[in-house]
From TrEMBL:
<feature type="active site" description="Proton donor/acceptor">
    <location>
        <position position="12"/>
    </location>
</feature>
<dbReference type="InterPro" id="IPR023214">
    <property type="entry name" value="HAD_sf"/>
</dbReference>
<keyword id="KW-0413">Isomerase</keyword>
<keyword id="KW-0460">Magnesium</keyword>
<keyword id="KW-0963">Cytoplasm</keyword>
<dbReference type="Pfam" id="PF03332">
    <property type="entry name" value="PMM"/>
</dbReference>
<comment type="pathway">
    <text>Nucleotide-sugar biosynthesis; GDP-alpha-D-mannose biosynthesis; alpha-D-mannose 1-phosphate from D-fructose 6-phosphate: step 2/2.</text>
</comment>
<feature type="active site" description="Nucleophile">
    <location>
        <position position="10"/>
    </location>
</feature>
<dbReference type="GO" id="GO:0016791">
    <property type="term" value="F:phosphatase activity"/>
</dbReference>
<feature type="binding site">
    <location>
        <position position="12"/>
    </location>
    <ligand>
        <name>Mg(2+)</name>
    </ligand>
</feature>
<dbReference type="InterPro" id="IPR006379">
    <property type="entry name" value="HAD-SF_hydro_IIB"/>
</dbReference>
<feature type="binding site">
    <location>
        <position position="128"/>
    </location>
    <ligand>
        <name>alpha-D-mannose 1-phosphate</name>
    </ligand>
</feature>
<feature type="binding site">
    <location>
        <position position="10"/>
    </location>
    <ligand>
        <name>Mg(2+)</name>
    </ligand>
</feature>
<dbReference type="GO" id="GO:0009298">
    <property type="term" value="P:GDP-mannose biosynthetic process"/>
</dbReference>
<feature type="binding site">
    <location>
        <position position="212"/>
    </location>
    <ligand>
        <name>Mg(2+)</name>
    </ligand>
</feature>
<keyword id="KW-0479">Metal-binding</keyword>
<protein>
    <recommendedName>
        <fullName>phosphomannomutase</fullName>
        <ecNumber>5.4.2.8</ecNumber>
    </recommendedName>
</protein>
Length: 253
């Protein structure tokens, strides 16, 4: 492997199991890589969750300002300045927009029938201001329950297509194992790649994206047309191996 100029990591099912904190060995490897090149974490998750589960491990590092956080599917970005995390940009949805999106989600769920009426675990909706996130069976369900709900993306593809018809002025993407993410039109992980490339004044071709859903229909696949290099992983263990490869390649660049 050649050393890229920077690496962007997806979060769930890439750096950690879905909605779980990363294991200590993942954080240690990330810190080692950060000593060599800039890193970005780009996720449908919230900044609060990333701060709670990851950022405390980087707070005292001399190169912490080389770590960039793009939560809410890149609808927000945080950078490290003067030992504090600063909101660099924010594509916040208005209260009215979020209310309309939530209403249309309910109609689309009924229309598509993706949730059985007698289902024990009911869907949840998270209003994250810059995004609205729908979870099919609740965010506290076990990893096995989440993975088995829609393994071939059929249900969420059906729901996403219905939502694209109902709210065409917004970005609708499949996320994780049970989620649909909604942001402003054009704001997605591809936007995050392009913004990060401009921030570092490099071409996407010199960057690497590591994610679990780069396959057709996956929520990471939108980055491919940007020209960024990509590596598909099946979980945090494979990501650890890639980080080790990167550390070895970048240490001798």
């Amino acid at each position: 492997m050649n050393c890229p100029k920077t690496v962007m990591f997806d979060l769930d099912d890439t750096l950690n199991e879905s909605l779980e904190p990363p294991k200590p060995e993942v954080l240690e490897r990330l810190k080692r890589l950060l000593e060599l090149i800039p890193i970005a974490i780009i996720s449908g998750g919230s900044f609060y969750r990333i701060e709670r589960d990851i950022l405390s491990a980087f707070a005292d590092l001399p190169r912490a300002n080389y770590l960039y956080i793009l939560p809410n599917n890149a609808a927000r970005c945080y950078v490290r300045e003067e030992k504090a995390w600063k909101l660099e940009y924010d594509f916040k949805l208005t209260v009215q927009e979020r209310a309309s999106i939530i209403e249309e989600i309910g109609k689309a769920v009924d229309e598509t029938g993706v949730i059985e009426k007698d289902a024990v675990q009911r869907p949840e909706i998270l209003d994250r201001e810059a995004s609205v996130v729908w979870g099919a069976i609740g965010f506290q369900a076990s990893a096995l329950e989440k993975a088995s709900w829609d393994p071939d993306l059929t249900k969420r593809t059906k729901l996403r297509d219905a939502l694209l018809h109902r709210i065409p002025d917004f970005e609708v993407s499949i996320g994780g194992t049970i989620m649909i993410n909604i942001t402003r039109k054009g704001i997605n992980k591809a936007y995050g790649v392009q913004w990060f490339a401009q921030r570092l004044n490099i071409e996407p071709a010199g960057m690497l994206f590591v994610g679990d859903a780069l396959y057709e229909g996956g929520n990471d696949a939108v980055v491919i047309p940007t020209g960024i290099q990509t590596r598909q992983v099946a979980g945090p263990q494979e990501t650890l191996e890639i980080i080790d490869e990167l550390c070895a390649a970048c240490a001798v660049k």
